[in-house]
């Protein structure tokens, strides 16, 4: 019964997260697009392999914007208390996702010979972005901001509160916020009936 009732709720949370992730990604897309073209047209005009450099730098800047949006909005309910560990995992997944548009740019620009600014934008900001978005969402949702980690953290929090208040929370099972009073053990004399001693 527990699995049947939790699975629809688990799926129901997926759609709002996907919408929020898409909104954060849209902001990241604008950041990536602006930084990429500014680097291509203004900053790195005479730099060798400026397309690859512009792609890498623009993606890194977009990663920073996406980190803030995903941690504090899209996946806020599942974010970890350990921001350092979570940030490292987020950065690793983002770097892996960055390899996808880089590969698309390399194939388009160097292998296929499409070297115009329009072709570079299509390979980087359309094809590469689409493939990278699917990859990142999957790893953000089921690894970096995993609901299982959030549930385990809720269980540990409940257990810690139970120890502090003298209540008992089961170690296994979903964190429902229900607590059972733990049996209070003490002196057998204290729990025994008050009987007068012989001779009183």
Terminal CA distance reads 60 Å
Question: Cα-atom Rg, whole angstroms?
Answer: 27 Å
Would you count the extended β strands for me? 2
Question: Could you say how many structural domains there are in total?
Answer: 2
Uncertain runs are: 1-6, 171-182, 184-192
- Shape type: elongated
Summed up, the helix count is 6
SSE run = HHHHHEEH
Strand order of the largest sheet: 1-2
Q: For this entry, what is the oligomeric state of its chains?
A: single chain
Major sheet details: 2 strands, antiparallel
Mean pLDDT across every amino acid position? 74
How would you characterize the overall build of this protein?
With 200 residues, this protein is an all-alpha fold. The chain has helices at 2-43, 50-74, 83-111, 117-144, 147-165, 188-191, and strands spanning 167-168, 180-181. Helix content is 74%, strand content 2%.
Give the secondary structure arrangement, pairings included.
Blueprint: H1 2-43, H2 50-74, H3 83-111, H4 117-144, H5 147-165, E1 167-168, E2 180-181, H6 188-191
Antiparallel strand pairs: 1-2
